[in-house]
Amino acid sequence: MVYLNVVLVLFLIVCAIAVERTKDLLGAVIIFAAYSLVMAVLWLLMKAPDIALTEAAIGAGVTSILFIAVISRTRRMEK
Amino acid sequence: MKKLMLMVVLAGLFVVLVSSILKMPALGSIDNPSYNEVTHYYLENTLDDTKAVNVIAAVITDYRAFDTLGETTVLFTSIAAVISVLQISHHKKEKNKGEKQHG
Amino acid sequence: MDDLIVKTITRLIVPFIQLYGIFIILHGHISPGGGFSGGAILGSSIILFTLSYGLERASKKVPHKISAILESAGILWYIFIGLIGIALGGTFLANQDSGFFMGEAGRILSAGMIPLLTVAIGIKVASTMVTLFHTIIEED
After folding, report:
1. I need a surface site. Which of A58, A61, C19, C77 has the fewest CB within 10 A?
2. C2: helix, coil or strand?
3. What ipTM does the predicted assembly reach?
4. Helix, strand, or coil here: A24?
5. What residue segments make up the domains of chain A, in order of their start?
């Protein structure tokens, strides 16, 4: 169980750095959705199912859809 | 030279943060500072006070219901701001179209 | 988007998503969940409908007027429940002191005002998500 925790936290850190490094904003949004999903699993492992439900619904679902809607109204690539 | 100083500062910050993590109590341990008499009160009296099995729901919508009212107000204010910014530009364009057709 | 597979799958799956959201809202005082997560699931089901069927049909299902009314109704219902406590001799948002039906622990009809407040929060969050998405993707 501890090893699973460590792997998930390492994935979280890699995702956070990749979101900041990516020039393609659409790709960054998708990496951010993966970050939110892993965060939801981590909340579940920390015995907070309420927060896990909210994170999976809002963080991975609605937030990325709103980001994609905003990207479709502006530019896709970062300058 | 600037990069070296930055590295030194970041290394110092790293040492401070890691040493503070090592001093933190483990997840869910009894020595946790947040595990005090308030927690005991909630765990012992929630069922009699509210008849709700889910203690978190009882805290959010009964003991701290006023805070949740504030959260709902934040949502309301944010949606009001978004609508007033985005709809005004739509209205302006429609108005300009109408005036052009008239003229 | 004009794709038969996406439209059919959406038509099949949206009622189940909405049922799950309503289940989470109504069981907020028994199982994990509550107003915020259930409302987000309800709102994302309508967002899925908008994505596959287009804004025109979705705003026929959930017009701007109705979502604006629901939004104000959610927060007004919350304040009204709080004022019932004052009217019946308790404090603002008091539960047991103001004489709500408490019932037996573990049933859906129990816990006084907690399900009523959860329904109010769920309506509020769902209509907020839908209005935000519809306003952003609206063509000018």
Report:
1. C19
2. coil
3. 0.77
4. strand
5. 2-73
